Amino acid sequence: MDGNFGEFGIIPCDYLASRRVRCGLAFKYDHAATGTHARSHARWSLMGRRTLVAVARPDGRYDCRLAHWGVDADPIAQSRPLGNDWTPAAVLAAIDATHEQLVVLDGSVRTYAVCWLDPMLSAIDDIALARTADPESFRQWWVDRKDAACRALDSEGCDPAAVRRALLASLRNRASSVHCPDDASFLRGDR
Q: What domain of life does the native source organism fall in (predicted)?
């Protein structure tokens, strides 16, 4: 396999396992040995653990940075410049399911996990942002929930809209706050 997968590609699962790829895009994969076809909720982006870092400016706009392998103690040092003078709406418009998290620096550090809600794994902009103090454990919880939802959809023939509603409800029960990407008001305050 040449590794050039495109946005949605057919990837043998033994290739993923051999490369220990953790991805945030979803793929259908074809296991040649069994001939099975299954929807796979891929866990992280093929480009790495993409994080959008939004640094607040005094005028209410943001300077944005991108990190391909996540961030921890120093988000600015671990990211590269992406753009300056972004509105809050532009920050949210830049985020889709290929991102793992949004980190907002505005005097404090606020981390929001990007949670892909679409159980059909086709609409990469169908996301919610969940505020979390522990991104790693939250991410693992979300991946397990999403994997179970995708399995239920595939094996039990559940209604995709019902599965999406259940995912959003469990997300709202778990996170300290959940925000849709069409409302940037949470960026302007500590919510």
A: Archaea
d(CA 138, CA 13): 25
Name the 3-class secondary structure at 35. Answer: coil
First to last CA, the chain: 44
More confident residue, 29 or 48: 48
Q: Using one digit for the tens of pLDDT, what is the confidence trace for 106-155?
A: 988 999 999 999 988 889 999 999 999 998 899 999 999 999 888 888 88
User: What are the CA-CA distances from residue 187 to residues 103, 139, 169, 190 (Å)?
Assistant: 10, 21, 22, 7
Q: What is the pLDDT of residue 156?
A: 81
CA dist 23 and 44 (Å) reads 3
Q: Would you say 107 and 90 are in contact if contact means Cβ atoms under 8 Å apart? A: no
* φ/ψ of residue 27, rounded to 5: -135, 160
**3-state secondary structure (DSSP) of residue 88:** helix
Residue type, 154: D
